[in-house]
Amino acid sequence: MAKNPGTVLPSQETPVGQTVLWAAGICLALTLAGTVMPKWLTFLITMAAANGLVSLGIVVLMRGGVVPFGQGMVFAVGGYAAALLFNKLGITDALLLTLCGGVAAALVAAPFAPLLSRYRGIFFAMLTLALSMVTYGLLMKLEVLGGSDGFNLGRPTLLGQKLPDEQVGYIMYVLTLVVSTVMALLARIYFDSTRGLITVAAKENELRVEYLGGSVHQAMAINFILAAFCGGLGGALAVMALGHIEPNFSFWTTSGEFVFVAILGGWQSVIALFLASTVLEVVRSFSSAYFPNTWQMALGIFLLIVIRFLPRGIGSLWVKGGTR
Questions:
Q1: What would the mean pLDDT of 158-186 be, rounded to a whole number?
Q2: What are the CB-based long-range contacts (under 8 Å, 24+) for 261-265?
Q3: pTM value surpassing 0.90
Q4: Tens of pLDDT along 302-315?
Q5: Rounded Cα gap, residues 305 and 243, in angstroms
Q6: Backbone angles phi, psi at 16, to 5 degrees
């Protein structure tokens, strides 16, 4: 396949080893900074990182030219899976619950992947939104899952150790940072892989990819399952941080916030995605505190400003070449 002269492949930009060192350094710096942060700030970053994982899944799909408006479904499935395993089966380890949340979301999404891989544009967006709203309706009606009120879960353990009262928030903060860092690295490696580059090529010309022997439908189906896994991880981490799960995890406005973050960060940079998620949490927190009746409008204005001056997202500030 001929390369666009203006294209910069990710593998040509930063070696994997250097990327790992940068990621580990940032994770370590944030971990150390968390020891002196106020609790409200560590909680805010914890939620931003957990939500950023869901938006990371959206970016996986955006690189192929589709935008899902139903990531709330996998976010809710991951959260409910973790909460049910905690309350019903007595599984309390935070790492295991996080992994189970991701696997549960991937398993729920897998049967729909072959169908959705055939759709593009508004059809893909609306089908994923429909799945999310069907999930929301089921969660609202099923009393065994707490109905409209949801239910609580207790304090998780970590590697068999009970978390102390004064450190539980910080430990969940560190755990979420570590999981997010690992997933960000894996996503970067996947984006630079052959299948990841096929996804980008399919966005430009699906027919040419098929002629060269690549399967666009297979690539999109795999991307959908990977996106679900990321969303499930984020849902499990968010539920453990909040200590409560409810059907609104799957509501369309929740899915819209994840898309908001993906657009704000752009699809060129993984770091920009988590930065955008943090920006959203900060803007939402302060807007709801000082403008309780108009904070949604403040978010909308903020997004319009970003689209006007940074149409490719925050990541375009440091990613060369604009598009890949």
A1: 88
A2: 261/51, 261/52, 261/55, 261/58, 262/55, 262/58, 262/59, 262/62, 262/67, 263/303, 263/306, 263/307, 263/313, 264/303, 264/306, 264/313, 264/314, 265/55, 265/59, 265/313, 265/314, 265/315
A3: no
A4: 778 877 887 777 77
A5: 35
A6: -60, -45
Taking the C-alpha atoms of 261, 265, 270 and 271 in order, what is their torsion angle to the nearest 10 degrees?
-100
* Residue 217 to residue 47: CA distance in whole angstroms: 33
Q: Mean of the pLDDT values across residues 230-250?
A: 92
Q: For residues 288 and 286, what is the distance between their CA atoms, to the nearest angstrom? A: 5
Residue 151 burial by CB count (10 A; 0-12/13-18/19+): exposed, middle or buried? middle
* DSSP-assigned letter for residue 243: T
Helix (H, G, I), strand (E, B) or coil at 134: helix
Interior angle at CA 229, CA 16 and CA 73, nearest 5: 140
CB 299 within 8 Å of CB 287? yes
Cα 283 to Cα 299: distance, rounded to the nearest angstrom: 7
Kindly report, residue by residue over 84-114, the tens digit of the pLDDT. 999 988 888 999 999 999 999 999 999 999 9
